[in-house]
């Protein structure tokens, strides 16, 4: 016996009322999804009721089908409305849980400062880059060849002694200057070249107000046809003027194995002369060691202690203050 149309209509209306009530009472999105599947899924309650439509007279099927679609639409609308309400409630609960009191004072974190050594390295680099120099670097652990031999140090030179140089068990050493970068760069590049090299150096030195066993050095050198000592002097004068302004400087004759002639440069500081760099024309033997023809090319080189320049710039009386990690000192910069 076929199911009467009125019975299907009653069942569909009852499903709509029960579904809306269940949707209205659900408290979370997971349960809401279960209700959706329970009523509108392929095996849901509405589908089960509609399973009896095949037994209806043909004349009643359109009316019952339209009613079924109305029930589906009504439940779907109720589901979407409840879903939106539950999502809004979750967002509101999250906002309330994460509410910040904007009137509370913030946690203060002191701002870092650039260390005087790093600061002056940056300044010097900017000056020489502006003059067209290329920045290069090299290893701190070096071989005797790059640190001494290629720089024209004789085998019995005092700088090779244990009391001056820190040697490693394998025969390598901690570089005593950044001139090793000069050799490495020239071996890999053809002239002309203008190079600035900076890095940490190591020597067995007695620590006092103006000396340290570990220090930073900057070296600059230029190689081209026709370079003279006048070019070196003019470059140093331009560099000192750019860094300190027009302060008195002097050149004193000196000796370095890798330059000839050589000079040391002093600046007037606190009423006395302070040595800040050594310089000179690159020795022909050094040019030959890297494969340059000294009959064609000449060049100059200069090396300076970063710490001493920082002392002049900031009027620091003792080099050891730069390594003390005393915040009272460092906060001044």
Would you write up a description of this structure?
With 333 residues, the protein is an alpha+beta fold. It folds into two domains: 5-97; 116-330, Bira Bifunctional Protein, Domain 2 (BirA Bifunctional Protein, domain 2). Helix content is 42%, strand content 20%. α1 (5-25) packs parallel to α4 and α5 packs across α10 (306-314). The model has no long low-confidence stretch (mean pLDDT 84).
What's the SSE blueprint?
Layout: H1 5-25, H2 29-40, H3 45-50, H4 61-97, H5 116-130, E1 134-136, E2 141-142, H6 144-147, E3 173-174, H7 179-188, E4 193-202, E5 214-224, H8 229-244, E6 249-256, E7 259-269, E8 272-282, H9 284-289, E9 298-305, H10 306-314, H11 327-330
Parallel strand pairs: 1-4
Antiparallel strand pairs: 2-3, 4-5, 5-9, 6-7, 7-8, 8-9
Backbone structural class:
alpha+beta
Number of distinct beta strands: 9
- Poorly predicted runs are none
Mean pLDDT: 84
Measured distance between first and last alpha carbons? 99 Å
Number of helices: 11
Strand content: 15-25%
Largest sheet: 7 strands, mixed
What is the CATH T-level topology of the largest domain?
BirA Bifunctional Protein, domain 2
What does the radius of gyration come to?
A: 42 Å
CATH superfamily of the largest domain: Bira Bifunctional Protein, Domain 2
Q: What is the CATH class of the largest domain?
A: Alpha Beta
Number of domains: 2
Task: Assign the CATH architecture of the largest domain.
Answer: 2-Layer Sandwich
**Share of residues in helices:** 40-55%
Shape: elongated
Q: Report strand order across the widest sheet.
A: 1-4-5-9-8-7-6
Order of helices and strands: HHHHHEEHEHEEHEEEHEHH
